[in-house]
Amino acid sequence: MTDSAIWSETERLAALRSYEILDTPPDGAFDRITALAARHFEVPVALVSLVDEDRIWFKSRCGLEAGQVPRVPGLCASVILSDTAYIVKNAIEDPRTLANPLVAGELGVRFYAAAPLITHDGYRLGTMNIIDFAPREFDAEEEWTLQQFAGLVVDQMELRLSARKAIATLTQIFLGAERSKELRKLVTVCAWSRKIRVDEEWVSFEEFLVEKLGVSITHGIDPQIAERLQGEMEHKE
Q1: Three-state DSSP class for 74?
Q2: What is the pTM of this model?
Q3: Are 194 and 182 in contact (CB under 8 A)?
Q4: How far is CA 167 from CA 16, 18, 156, 177, in A?
Q5: Tens-place pLDDT, residues 40-93
Q6: Other CB atoms closer than 10 Å to residue 163's CB: what's the count?
Q7: Please, what are the domains in the chain?
Q8: For 20, how many CA atoms within 13 A lie in the half-sphere containing its CB?
Q9: Distance (Å, whole) CA 63 – CA 42
């Protein structure tokens, strides 16, 4: 593996984590997609998988008990290497999948078709895939349909990411507004001393900025004051 490939995988994993979807509870929207895919293609298993660093985690699974499997080449781990659909019509005759535990082991996968989950910025985070335990054909129209299912999955992921960002933004706006209202209620300035009354205590303006608002202060001089001082000094001379 080249350095560029390692860097690309690092970026891909960072993108995957930004969606905050790994190890989340089942979600009806994703489960409806896998159930519909299983019914449409007439297969016993349909999965939404996310390819993590060393595992393949299933966000939704229809017809499979396992919640995740190790990341090994041949099936989902190989799908994310390309933007195109990945079709295995007979896994025990396909050199790409012969050594995969899901093929060689007890589960006995024979047919596998998957489309990568491609984000709006091009990262392939996982797959929308279907499985059968007998070999079968899969034509171009079916490939296209599977890719549309993958698109629906990505739409749900993007929707949740956008909603989370919007909530975070609104929360900051709300907190800022509440803080502003709080300050308007609490701040009283003495006309004589120019001190500020906060929490039943009179403090200097500098103390208010530093202790109450967390502002860092550096010292400077107003140009008008500097000009006046210079004039006074010249006058004394």
Answers
A1: coil
A2: 0.70
A3: no
A4: 20, 15, 16, 15
A5: 999 999 999 999 999 999 999 999 999 999 999 999 999 999 999 999 999 999
A6: 10
A7: 3-164 (3.30.450.40), 187-236 (no CATH)
A8: 7
A9: 12
